[in-house]
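cron nightly-structures :: item 1 of 1
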Amino acid sequence: MKPKLSNNRALRIIEAAREEYAKRGFAGARVEHIARRAGVNKQLLFYYYHSKRGLFEAVLTQAAAELEAALASLPAGRPLDRLRLVLEALFDFLARYPAGAAFAPAIKRLVVLLAEGQGLGQVRDDVDPHLTAAQALVLMVGYLGMESVIAASARPLSADEPALRERWKEAAVALVVAGVAAR
């Protein structure tokens, strides 16, 4: 039985699972911790989701829906302008939900924007939209996964990690957009 996500307990379980998976990854996450954090017993969690894997898939489904809603609400405009907005929104989403992001909607949207930009002469013809979308995602996930190391190495320059994250996001987005723009 898949619970309705309007169900308060189901929402608490998903949020607790998202936090646990983000902190410990799938392998390190413990169902007991998730149940305790959600304020339910393990039996209810298994009743709703059947297994740790089923719960993880529910978290990914919810994250994908949230990401798609965020991307769909971005304003219309030139493909390169929309590409910049999508990359910024994706970076912010990944920063909030590091282990809970399902990437397919984001990659698909980036591929479409890149292909549209090629059709309008705004994106270089030699750019492979699929490869470029995946590389942009790897750039963001790589930074977020290494953020503490990068911040520690930048500490003499700036101890303000949120400002460093924002500067890095702006630089990464600019790098991708400039790299694909037609000359």
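cron nightly-structures :: done
The first helix runs from residue 8 to 28.
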